[in-house]
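Class, study these two lines:
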Amino acid sequence: MEVTFYFNVRNREQALCQLVGKAVARGLTLNVLAGSEAAAMALDRLLWEQPQIGFLPHCAADADIAPATPVVVDYRSNKLTIRNALFNWTDGIPPDFQQYERVIEIVEQDDAQRTAARERWRAYQAHGITPVAVDMLKLGQTTGGAA
């Protein structure tokens, strides 16, 4: 089980769309756990709009097509079935996170988000997991583009 923090992200929503798109292209199935119903609805709209020349197939956990859909977006963790990866869009560590192969955290260049991410980092460590940190500013400098 791996927990990855992508930090120094300029635009959290754009980074989510890019990372979800890459995972879907690799044939992975994903859950995106939102912190509230409103946040889940906002993510739903976002994934219909991005990328601009396509869309990322997704639905809510209780949709009839959920088992066949690569991305499930929901705020009800108890409705999610375990998939390859979980994108955590909440303020805490997700329940049942250890059942996933991978958990992804995306952290903007915002002091409040960084503080909350540090708390989640320590919470994962308390569960015996050493998270991996990916600095998107440095990655952008070496690859010519940043999320």
